[in-house]
Amino acid sequence: MPEIYGDELIYVPWQRPGFDIGLIIENLIKENPQAKGVLLGHHGMSSWNNDDQTCYETALEIIERAAGYIAEHDRGEATFGGSRYSPLSETDRQRIQTEIIPWLRGELSVQRRVVGTVQDDERMLRFVNSVDGPRLAALGTSCPDHFLRTKIKPLLVEWDQPLAMSRACGPP
């Protein structure tokens, strides 16, 4: 983290939320008066300033610097352990989605109705087709906010024969 933020941000490794983490942060702010914010392991980020606009801009700067660092260190084709599968063409993806999504929604809606979304942009395909994708998906999300909004971990289904749709997945 110092390579991204220098001494402008404090890092606190994961700590159970509550009074103790508040005391840790308070002490670190006293020890690091130049700090503009704090990164909380598996919780998120916070910034501060007496001016609301400056505080907001600082939060955006923290995020943008992290994004820049990630982009600069992108390993290209080796990202996520490299490619395990080649992405299907958009036409093939749409055909498969059209065949399986109504069945899947029906199966998931037995207890209560659900709405699904499909994300198959280049970044998502890079992840799901990668060597490390299944392992990384199984690790789950990194902060409690994601637990509430996007669930604990994504559903990643390994599918050996994506072009050979099984009739067991839908009506004959």
Structure, described:
The protein contains seven helices and three strands; from the N terminus they run αβαββααααα. With 172 residues, it is mostly helical. The protein has a three-stranded mixed sheet with strand order 1-2-3. The longest helix has 21 residues, at 52-72. The chain starts with a helix and ends in a 23-residue tail after the last helix. Mean pLDDT is 84; it is low at 162-172.
Short key terms for the protein model shown above:
172 residues; mainly alpha; 3-stranded mixed sheet
**Approximately how much helix is present in the residues?**
40-55%
SS element count, helices: 7
Order of helices and strands: HEHEEHHHHH
General form: elongated
Uncertain parts? 162-172
Sequence of strands across the biggest β-sheet: 1-2-3
Radius of gyration: 21 Å
Main sheet attributes: strand count, strand direction, barrel closure: 3 strands, mixed
Mean pLDDT: 84
The number of E-state strands comes to 3
